[in-house]
């Protein structure tokens, strides 16, 4: 059986009825799932009740470590009940990976030549400190940096050559990578939590100071500069503390990190027309985007989609060049014909507007569908589908379909709302808003003949009517006069272009 990708391992002590046939059946059933199974050994110190024998079963899982043990127990228990096995899960333990082993990376760089001027030496030392004069040659050694380890690194580099220019101690030297001191030393969870909290506080306060500078106009906002000015040096010193660096390099690292965060907060606040208190919606939208992105990763990675993406995406994208224009022309036709009674083929609309008008509802439907897929991804990550995996596989597509249909209905309602706005503007004598390439203009009708043939007449000459880019021998107009009835499509007027002159109008009277 093909084993599924996993990132967690749960080891369980399982008791099986002490019968040879029962034990062999249980082992074969567990092994068929891709699980490692073996009898308990003396070193496991696993006891079993009378009449039972102990097996050690290792279940590989994918998802959060918080729910891995319960998921493994559920899988074993459900499988045993389905296969009618006399099995009892006595103990479950998450197998944690070995902590990262401390290591040190050495970069080979050029030495500063003897006899150079102090100014060039100063420049060369700073250039070396930021990696500008490296040979693109690194050596990785286990353990923390010590003088003995440095001597070992120089000896190895001098003895071994795997290609390229050999290491020459007279013209080459080594340096450590830029990083904090002792980043692998602390195994104390409390110390790690404190360090993470301090880093998070620096990031949040730097962003907040930038937002204050961008959102307020009072001179008191300049007090927010105290934080980035005061933290540049300590932040740069901490980041580069694993090896002595020139003070200018430490300061430049701190300025880059702190002031980039402050500048981001400033640009965020300065680009928003609303005040700082009204930017909460933007923050929520950003959090929703992050929630969706991570949820999509959990849902699609190591899945059927990721394994078949090379053919699934082209098949999915191939109909878009044909579907978008059709949807766009349908929305344009609905806007003109259903609400204004004007044939869609009598109004010229640039072809690219068909893509634009169709992209918004399709993008909204796709976005809402992706949010639901992201929810399924988070459920997959936290193993919420335990025991109801089949239900999740059926309900999520149905929810996506319902969301798509809901958004499609909303797009049709959006066409109606756009038509209502245009009608209200025409009735009030204002310029009508455009609808994705369809622009209505108020015009006054000046008859050129005493008798004018018109459909849905008579011809209004005392108040302006709406014209949608009239061209050709036939002119279609829309009369906003409410006396024509509630059916707005019956307000359409059809005239011959040779019988009337259309003059741009402003206001409610001609």
Quick overview:
The chain has 510 residues and is α+β, with helices and mostly antiparallel strands. Helix content is 48%, strand content 16%. The chain contains 13 helices and 13 strands.
Would you mind describing this structure in some detail?
- The chain is α+β, with helices and mostly antiparallel strands and 510 residues long.
- Helices cover 48% and strands 16% of the residues.
- It has a six-stranded antiparallel sheet, with no helix packed on it. It has a four-stranded antiparallel sheet with strand order 2-3-1-4, covered by helices on one side.
- Strand 10 (465-467) and strand 11 form a beta hairpin.
- Helix 5 crosses helix 7, helix 6 packs across helix 7 (247-270) and helix 11 crosses helix 12.
- The longest helix has 39 residues, at 389-427.
- 21% of the residues are buried.
- Distance linking N and C termini: 82 Å
| Main pleated sheet | 6 strands, antiparallel
What is the chain-wise order of helices and strands?
A: EHEEHEEHEHEHHHHHHHHHEEEEEE
Number of helices: 13
- Say what oligomer this is: single chain
């Amino acid at each position: 059986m093909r084993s599924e990708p996993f990132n967690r391992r749960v080891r369980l002590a399982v008791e099986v009825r002490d019968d040879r046939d029962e034990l062999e059946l249980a082992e074969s059933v567990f092994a068929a799932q891709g699980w490692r199974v073996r009898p308990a050994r003396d070193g496991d110190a696993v006891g079993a009740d009378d009449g039972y024998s102990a097996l050690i079963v290792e279940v590989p899982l994918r998802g959060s470590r918080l729910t891995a043990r319960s998921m493994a127990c559920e899988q074993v228990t459900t499988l045993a009940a389905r296969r009618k096995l006399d099995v009892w899960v006595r103990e479950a333990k998450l197998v944690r990976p070995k902590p990262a082993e401390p290591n040190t990376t050495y970069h080979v760089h050029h030495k500063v030549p003897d006899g150079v001027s102090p100014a060039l030496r100063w420049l060369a030392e700073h250039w070396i400190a930021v990696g500008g004069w490296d040979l693109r040659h690194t050596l990785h050694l286990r353990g923390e940096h010590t003088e003995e380890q440095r001597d070992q690194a120089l000896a190895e580099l001098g003895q071994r050559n795997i290609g390229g220019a050999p290491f020459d101690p007279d013209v080459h030297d080594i340096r450590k990578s830029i990083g904090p001191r002792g980043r692998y030393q602390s195994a104390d969870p409390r110390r790690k939590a404190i360090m993470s909290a301090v880093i998070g506080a620096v990031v949040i306060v730097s962003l907040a100071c930038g937002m204050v500078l961008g959102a307020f106009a009072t001179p008191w906002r300049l007090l927010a500069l105290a934080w980035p000015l005061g933290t540049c040096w300590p932040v740069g010193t901490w980041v580069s503390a694993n090896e002595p660096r020139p003070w200018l390099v430490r300061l430049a690292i701190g300025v880059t990190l702190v002031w980039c965060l402050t500048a981001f907060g400033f640009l965020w606040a300065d680009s928003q027309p609303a005040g700082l208190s009204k930017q909460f919606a933007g923050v929520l939208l950003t959090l929703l985007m992050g929630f969706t992105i991570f949820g999509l990763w959990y849902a699609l990675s190591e899945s059927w989609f990721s394994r078949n993406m090379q053919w699934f995406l082209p098949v999915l994208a191939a109909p878009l060049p044909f579907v978008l224009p059709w949807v766009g022309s349908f929305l344009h036709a609905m806007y003109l014909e259903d609400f204004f009674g004007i044939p869609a083929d009598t109004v010229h609309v640039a072809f690219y507007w068909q893509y634009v008008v169709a992209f918004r509802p399709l993008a909204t439907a796709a976005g809402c569908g992706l949010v639901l897929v992201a929810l399924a991804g988070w459920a997959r990550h936290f193993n919420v589908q335990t025991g109801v995996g089949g239900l999740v596989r059926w309900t999520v597509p149905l929810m996506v379909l319902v969301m798509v249909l809901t958004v499609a209905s909303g797009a049709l309602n959006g066409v109606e709302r756009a038509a209502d706005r245009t009608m209200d503007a025409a009735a009030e004598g204002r310029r009508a808003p455009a609808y994705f390439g369809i622009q209505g203009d108020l015009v006054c009708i000046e008859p050129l003949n005493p008798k004018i043939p018109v459909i849905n007449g008579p011809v209004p000459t005392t108040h302006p009517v709406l014209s949608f880019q009239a061209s050709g021998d036939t002119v279609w107009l829309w009369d906003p006069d409410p006396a024509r009835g509630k059916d707005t499509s019956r307000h359409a007027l059809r005239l011959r272009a040779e019988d009337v002159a259309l003059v741009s109008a402003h206001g409610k009277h001609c």
